[in-house]
Design a protein that fits this description.
The chain has 471 residues and is an alpha/beta fold. It has two domains: 190 residues, Lyase, Ornithine Decarboxylase, Chain A, domain 1 (Beta Barrel), CATH 2.40.37; 185 residues, Alanine racemase (TIM Barrel, Alpha-Beta Barrel). Helices cover 29% and strands 22% of the residues. The chain has 14 helices and 20 strands. Strands 4, 13, 14, 15, 16, 17, 18, 19 and 20 form a nine-stranded mixed beta sheet that branches. The protein has an eight-stranded parallel β-barrel with strand order 5-6-7-8-9-10-11-12, surrounded by seven helices. Helix 10 runs parallel beside helix 11. The mean pLDDT is 94. Bound molecules: pyridoxal-5'-phosphate (PLP).
Length: 471
């Protein structure tokens, strides 16, 4: 068998006999494809299922989530924190990356907590069976109703600003709590003033950020909290950004956050937890070279131990909240090719049946993706094409200048690394229903999100009677 698609060689797909144990030593965030991806003749298989069969049975576009990869990332995070941090630790899944029942349930089954940013994400986590003890509620503009839901459910509130603290104090005055007489657990998020190299839209650590308290206001925050018996300040939180490949910012973060932690203690508070956020990057293309989950955990745990030792502080419970690196490379999107437009000497456009509505990252962040032909895995890469979405927007291009075998209508293309910020950011632009998602594992397949229909969309429309039946 000749393996011609570079992505195939890159992904180690040629090793067909690799055992599950061997697979699990790989760090999925460093892989382009899910761990179980295999080439079988001309066909790409994921989780023991042929991609072309999945498209036949479930249609396209289709999100295909590999359970083994999601479980591997979850357990690698958890085990690495156990290995490198002598104190207590808890890994949370930042569910905004992909909030749905199945993903939350798998994360919870792997003993992860969940971090949420809206009542929709809270209710999804609760319905997936996540223990509210392990749900942390974030957001820079939580509504009163959302805070009330989170408090009553027993979630920890990550206070982002004074609006949150005022609402929490008001709710406490009104007697709203999880259990009568039990204070609400509150963490304080602040901007640590740490810059990292990533897209401007996903930087969060710099002082000029909409997220978290300004570090100069922390003393005031701690004074306020020390006078609120119904609010228990359980710790501090900071998150520096997303799709980060550097490790140094995490060292700097440990010192800054431990300093703020000791300040909270000086104010008479009794914090016990530190959450250092998420942000580890993943591999979208061969040129992306993120650290492994193990190296990331080793760095953040080591930095925290060192920072605490410097301050002679007993080790707090250490939390982290990865999103992208947990679910990103566990999923691929399959599309069916339709029209092919050849502009001689200029470019060939290969259009697929999805695009910016199911993957808004290229048009939003200029993100670069790879693509492969799932039914032509052993054919030579003879064509350079631009894979375009079906939406009325010239910027709706999924992949520029992709090397593919010669493709035409009916061929199945697969875009890897679409687990994070794809379904969760999907839209109905051009009145396109959102795709279905399936979970694959050991040759079995289950629907985890039904395909939306146009009827679903029309359900929310109302036609004023005076306009009905007009000609
Ligand atoms: C988005 C976000 C995360 C997760 O970031 P990833 O880059 O997906 O790991 C974690 N914490 C907070 C507060 C976030 O906003």
């Amino acid at each position: 068998m000749t393996l011609t698609q570079p992505i195939v060689v890159e992904s180690g797909l040629q090793n067909l006999s690799e055992s599950q144990e061997a697979r699990e030593t790989r760090s999925p965030n460093q892989e382009l494809l899910p761990l179980t991806a295999k080439v079988n003749g001309d066909e790409l298989e994921i989780g023991g299922c042929k991609v072309t069969d999945l498209v036949k049975d479930f249609g396209s576009p289709l999100y295909i989530l590999d359970e083994e990869t999601l479980r591997a990332t979850s357990s690698q995070y958890r085990k690495a924190f156990k290995r490198y941090y002598p104190g207590e630790s808890q890994v949370l899944y930042a569910s905004k990356a992909w909030s749905c029942l199945a993903v939350c349930a798998i994360a919870a089954d792997e003993k992860l907590g969940i971090d949420v940013v809206s009542s929709g994400e809270i209710k999804t986590a609760l319905q997936a069976g996540v223990n509210p003890d392990k749900i942390y509620f974030h957001g820079n503009n939580k509504s009163r109703e959302e805070i009330q839901l989170a408090v009553k459910s027993g979630c920890t509130i990550v206070a982002d600003n004074w609006w949150d603290l005022e609402n929490l104090a008001k709710l406490a005055l009104a007697g709203v709590s999880h259990k009568a007489g039990e204070p609400t657990r509150v963490m304080v998020r602040f901007t640590p003033g740490i810059e990292c190299h990533t897209h401007d839209y996903i930087k969060t650590g710099q002082i000029d950020s909409k997220f978290g308290f300004d570090p100069n206001s922390l003393k005031e925050v701690f004074t306020f909290l020390s006078k609120q018996p119904s609010l228990s300040c359980v710790g501090l939180h900071a998150h520096i950004g997303s799709q980060i490949f550097e490790l140094q910012p995490h060292h700097d973060l440990a010192d800054v956050i431990v300093e703020a932690f000791t300040e909270a203690i000086r104010h008479g508070l009794k914090p016990t937890e530190i959450n250092i956020g998420g942000g580890l990057g993943i591999r979208y293309t061969e040129s992306d070279d993120p650290p492994s989950i193990d190296d990331w955990a080793k760095t953040v745990c080591g930095a925290m131990v060192a920072a605490c030792n410097k301050k002679k502080l007993p080790l707090p419970k250490l939390l982290c909240e990865p999103g992208r690196s947990l679910v990103g490379t566990a999923c691929v999107t399959a599309y069916t090719v339709g029209s092919k437009k050849v502009i001689p000497g200029i470019r060939t456009y290969l259009s697929v049946d999805g695009g910016m509505s199911d993957n808004p990252r290229p048009i939003t962040y200029q993100s670069v993706y790879r693509v492969l032909a799932a039914n032509k895995m052993s054919e030579p890469l003879t064509e350079k094409v631009t894979v375009a979405g079906k939406h009325c927007e010239s910027g709706d291009i999924l992949i520029k200048d992709a090397q593919l075998p010669e493709c035409q209508a009916g061929d199945i293309l697969v875009v890897p690394a679409t687990g994070a910020y794809n379904y969760s950011m999907a839209s109905n632009y051009n009145r396109v229903p959102r795709p279905a998602a399936v979970l694959v594992s050991n040759g079995k397949v289950e629907t985890i999100v039904e395909r939306e229909t146009v009827e679903d969309l029309l359900k929310f429309d109302r036609l004023p009677e005076r306009l009905a039946g007009q000609k």
